[in-house]
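Much of our argument rests on the idea that a fold can be written as discrete symbols. In the encoding step, the backbone of a single protein was reduced to a row of integers, each denoting a local shape. This step matters because it turns folding into a mapping between discrete strings. For completeness, the protein is quoted in full, as a sequence line and a line of structure tokens:
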Amino acid sequence: MSKMIFVNLPVNDLDAATRFYEAIGCTKNQQFSDGNAASMVWSDAITFQLLTLDFFKTFAPKAVANSRDTVGALIALSRDSRAEVDAITEAAACAGGKADVRERQDMGFMYGRAFEDPDGHVFEAVWMDMEAASSEMGA
């Protein structure tokens, strides 16, 4: 089995969260979804497991942070172009999230914007010109 990442996220409204993740490009895996969870496939190796808050608590040995007030992780999503960074960020805003929760980053060889999902989880959409980045980092 290849290495995979399953990002488990607590959500307040499973239906709204599912619509949001579909809007940013995920596909719902019905096999691993029910009234407590939505399995949202980002790629062959990455899946977001959206879990109702009560269900999430059954897996968490600590109190669950309120993502609207605290940040416990920044989830970066690579994109193939600056336009794709802009498109996913705008899609996030249109689907109940919040765009540009910090200033855009534009270093020439790297471009990024940040957005929140409806529950306040923070994502960074990032494009990087690897050849230019190598040149820039080597200088």
